[in-house]
Amino acid sequence: MKKFKITFNSPVTLGFIFVCFAVLVLGFLTGGLSNQLLFMSYHSSLLDPLTYVRFFTHVLGHSGWDHYIGNSAYILLLGPMLEEKYGSKRLLQIILITALVTGIVNYVLFWNVALCGASGVVFAFILLTSFTSFKEGEIPLTFILVAIIFLGQQIYDGLFVQDDISNLSHIIGGIIGAVVGYRLNRK
Q: What interhelical angle do 167-185 and 88-109 show, nearest 10?
């Protein structure tokens, strides 16, 4: 009988999920203070060096287990396929770009809103995944449907649903995933 071994098949995807988990536990241990200090992007002084750190690190923080599990499920589902197709370095770049852009947009547009969580990354992955079979001169129907369903829902929710969800971050993440997916696959 052949022995099976567990492989660390997607280092960026798994590393990201494990770091998010560690940040979540740290948040519970500090009563949320670590999230406020390092893992939420909000309007703070541009003289504070942590403002710039939080533009990137807010994607590591989550408001609770449900938030973490929801994002992790999508990232674990989509991340390994994307990491295999585009490579670990490229996937890390996509995560960092999404974090930076969503962090800056939240800082500029929403002075009284703290942003925390990997939902923008999730939406970048969702739209990026729909480009995996893209060919020059074609637009995959899967991309069109995913864009309509996921982004359409976020636009609707942003306009008509009152909750603590940053729909704009989801939309921005989706746009980043679509642009990157198109650019990486057009050759």
A: 140
**d(Cα 186, Cα 164) in Å, to the nearest integer?**
37
Q: What is the pLDDT of residues 65-98, one digit of tens each?
A: 999 999 999 999 999 999 999 999 999 999 999 9
Yes or no: say if 111 and 43 are a contact pair by the CB < 8 Å rule: yes
Superfamily of domain 11-185: Rhomboid-like (1.20.1540.10)
The residues, ordered by sequence, that sit 6+ positions from 85 with a Cβ below 8 Å of its Cβ are 132
- Rounded Cα gap, residues 173 and 178, in angstroms: 9
Q: What is the pTM of this model?
A: 0.88
Domain range list for the chain: 11-185
Reading the block at residue 137, the tokens are: 């001169």
Q: What is the dihedral of CA 142, 145, 147, 151, to 10 degrees?
A: -140
CA separation (Å) from 140 to 86, 135, 145, 146, 148?
A: 18, 8, 9, 10, 13
- Cβ(90)–Cβ(11) below 8 Å: no
Beta bridge partners of 41: 115
